From TrEMBL:
UniProt record, GO biological process: heterophilic cell-cell adhesion via plasma membrane cell adhesion molecules; homophilic cell adhesion via plasma membrane adhesion molecules
Top-level taxonomy: Eukaryota, Metazoa, Chordata, Craniata, Vertebrata
Keyword annotations: Disulfide bond, Glycoprotein, Membrane, Repeat, Signal
Keyword hit for Membrane: yes
Chief location category: membrane
Source organism of this protein record: Pygocentrus nattereri
PROSITE patterns per the UniProt record, alphabetical: IG_LIKE
UniProt GO cellular component terms: adherens junction; membrane
Protein's name in the database: Ig-like domain-containing protein
């Protein structure tokens, strides 16, 4: 009994020793956990605070923050905290005392830029409870997403300037260019303030062409909100070839009264109503549906700094009667914007170019410049969109250089001769919505300087012809007399 009792005591002592050693080893081992508080995407220019939380029962050794660059192959140290040189953490705690401590390290990044985008790491080290020569390390990471709002937005017309096609419908494309956004913005179009329902297409031009004009020709004629009687009558007369065209004079068809018709009322002659409003621009010879299909396509290009350029294109069959004076806007939604960003244009046909001539009093031999300075009647600051094509011609003849026409905003006539006096020049401004023109007459005055030089030259020539032989005969006679 005594033997078994002593053996039981020995087992109990061994068990207690093992438990004590386990407890001591557990207290020496300690633990360390590191986490970084997540951050939502931030806007470029904001101030960002990165927070690194770590929990441990040991003594803090150091905290190091890194910015990871070059795809993770390189790390840039941005912050270091060393507890050995900080009096607040220089005290040594009792190894047998187990205490759970929570720390937080923050790094403030003022006015973040696009180059601040990327991963960040927080490394924490504590002393090993078994040996002060060893350090236990742990780390956490976070990816900082920096957003950049779009810097610019513009709306242009693709493939412009272009001529006005009066015999066939043509496709028209608006292009909205948005640059500087990250992530890529959402782009959409509106017409007169209402969102346009679009048909996605990789090749909007081909999609619009494949639709063709067959269904459009079968549709009803257009009656636009700005379609007056003049436009309606002209459009209907083009659709119905049997209808007699509107007469622009007051001459009525000749009618004769027969004796048998004296007592009867004959058919009253039809009076043609001539509109008071004279429309200067030309109208197309075709009619499209009042609800066209809009085809949408967009492309994205990424720059070296991570920002994007988005080009959104809206293509449809243009109808000059319906689309003239229509307001199209391109709007952009982006998480870095508090409200949509937009750019708008108003489609308008040219209303007649306003011309200027320099010099105002042209003389023979001068260089004359006839330039376009604007339009006679315009909308919203005398602007025309899309940009018109200007063509110069001479009424009843060729231009001074022998060409039939010349494009551009300025026509230059070098060393104008007197023969051009009274000549008429026509400037035609056209875009896909319409065509119009303005005439100006060139008056060439005599140039006194050229006339005087010409007169002196003629007198010198005539003097040589008249006095040359006489002087030679006189000189010869005097010589003979002296000899």
């Amino acid at each position: 009994m005594a033997y078994f009792s002593s053996a039981s005591k020995m087992n109990l002592l061994v068990t207690l020793s093992l438990l004590l050693c386990s407890t001591l080893m557990d207290s020496v081992k300690g633990y360390l956990t590191v986490t970084i508080e997540p951050l939502p995407p931030v806007v470029m220019g904001d101030t960002v605070t990165l927070k690194c939380n770590f929990r441990t029962d040991g003594n803090l050794r150091e905290i190091v923050w890194f910015r990871v660059t070059e795809g993770g192959s390189s790390k840039q140290k941005i912050f270091t905290y060393d507890a050995m040189y900080n009096t607040n953490f220089s005290h040594m705690e009792d190894f047998r005392r187990r205490e759970d401590l929570v720390y937080q390290s923050t790094v403030r990044l003022p006015e973040v830029q696009m180059e601040d985008n990327g991963p960040y790491e927080c490394h924490v080290g504590i002393y090993d409870r078994a040996s002060r020569d060893k350090v236990v390390l742990a780390s956490g990471s976070i990816t900082l997403a920096v957003m950049s709002p779009p810097k610019s937005i513009s709306v242009i017309a693709a493939d412009q300037p272009a001529r006005f096609n009066r015999y066939e419908a043509q496709n028209f494309t608006l292009m909205c260019i948005v640059t500087g956004g990250k992530p890529a913005p959402v782009v959409y179009f509106k017409r007169d303030g209402e969102l346009i329902e679009v048909v996605p297409s990789d090749k909007p031009h081909e999609a619009a062409e494949s639709r063709g004009l067959f269904s459009a020709r079968e549709s009803r004629p257009l009656i636009s909100r700005d379609l007056d009687d003049t436009k309606l009558q002209k459009s209907l007369s083009l659709l119905e070839p049997d209808v007699e065209p509107v007469r622009l004079d007051n001459v009525r068809p000749h009618q004769s009264n027969t004796p048998g018709a004296l007592g009867q009322e004959g058919p009253q002659p039809t009076t043609e109503i001539i509109p008071e409003t004279v429309v200067s621009r030309e109208f197309p010879r075709w009619v499209l549906s009042s609800s066209p299909l809009y085809y949408f396509n967009h492309t994205q290009t990424e720059f070296s700094d991570g920002t994007m350029e988005v080009q959104a294109m809206l293509t449809w069959h243009l109808n000059p009667q319906l689309d003239n004076d229509a307001l199209f806007s391109c709007e952009v939604k982006h998480p870095a914007l508090s409200m949509p960003m937009q750019a708008e244009v108003t489609l308008s046909a040219p209303k007649g170019p306003k011309l200027s001539m320099t010099p105002s009093r042209a003389k023979v031999g001068d260089t004359v410049r006839i330039a376009v300075e604007g339009f006679q009647v315009g909308t919203k600051g005398n602007e025309v969109f899309p940009e018109p094509l200007f063509t110069w011609t001479r009424v009843g003849g060729l231009l001074l250089d022998g060409s039939a026409e010349r494009e551009g905003k300025v026509l230059v006539l070098e060393r104008v001769p007197a023969e051009l006096n009274g000549s008429m020049y026509r400037c035609t401004a056209e875009n896909p919505l319409g065509s119009t023109n303005t005439h100006t007459r060139l008056i060439v005055f005599e140039n006194p300087r050229i006339k005087k030089e010409s007169l002196q030259f003629n007198v010198a020539d005539s003097g040589e012809e008249l006095f040359g032989p006489t002087f030679m005969m006189l000189l010869l006679s005097v010589t003979l007399e002296f000899t």
